[in-house]
Amino acid sequence: MKLKPVRALMAAAILLTGTSAADAHIVAARLGDFYMGASHPLTDLQDVVLWIATGMLAGTLGASKGRWLIPVFPIGLLVGLSLAPVFATVSTQLADATMMLAIGMLLAAAAQVPTLVLCAIAFAVAVIRGAANGAELGPETDRLLFAAGLACVGYGAITLTMALTVLFKRNADSVTSWRAIAVRALGGWIAAIGLMMASLVLAS
Predict the structure, then answer these.
(1) What would the pLDDT profile of 2-12 be if each residue is shown by its tens digit?
(2) Alpha helices of 84-177 — where are they, by DSSP H?
């Protein structure tokens, strides 16, 4: 008889534990779409190269021009994500390659790009890559959480890359300094990657 209260308490504890585990699983599943949006671009080479190239281009032009990309780039990602269902069957590989080639050549030439043109380039890159990321989503994905994660990582990536480039070039005395040459050389490599990608796409 005395065991009944103990058994009742054990049963209640098991039920509470099961409920807590279920709630935790639901929360983890919901937040999983946010983390998927934040991590998905980091697993795609085209995202990594284009985002870094865009941030570097903004950084070489200085903080006064580059800071406009802080809101422009995440907004472009969200616009591209919203357009993903419309362009789900369209490949972005040629557009990605073209943007890599263009940005790489601008970096290699140390071109002084106007702020409006810089924002247009960054917005175009963000829309293209936002659509590419959104095209792979399944119907079970919470698009709002995915969009929040994508926008957050886009903001962080473009801001960090731009800031590091500004700091790296701050001590460059002239366009012939090794720091300036290193940035231009990296731009040449990015342009070469874009050219090879475009060639492969057109040849297929």
Answers:
(1) 555 545 545 54
(2) 93-108, 115-134, 143-170
Q: The tokens of 36 are what?
A: 């998927």
pLDDT at position 71 over 80: yes
Q: How far apart are CA 90 and CA 84, in angstroms?
A: 9
**pTM summary value:** 0.80
127, two tokens: 């829309």
User: Which tokens is 136 given?
Assistant: 């792979």
| CA separation for the pair 72, 79 (Å, rounded) | 10
Rg over alpha carbons for the chain, rounded to the nearest Å, is 23
- Residue spans of the domains in the chain: they are 3-203
Task: State how far the Cα of 180 lies from the Cα of 192, in Å rounded to an integer.
Answer: 19
pLDDT digits (tens, 9 = 90+) for 27-60: 334 568 888 888 888 888 889 999 999 999 999 9
The Cα–Cα gap between 118 and 48 comes to 18
Spatial distance between the Cα atoms of 169 and 166, rounded to a whole number of angstroms: 5
| Cα separations in angstroms, 50 against 53, 127, 159, 165, 169 | 5, 12, 14, 15, 20
26-30, 131-135, 182-186, 197-201: segment of lowest average pLDDT: 26-30
Q: Of 191, 185, 179, which Cα lies nearest the Cα of 105?
A: 191
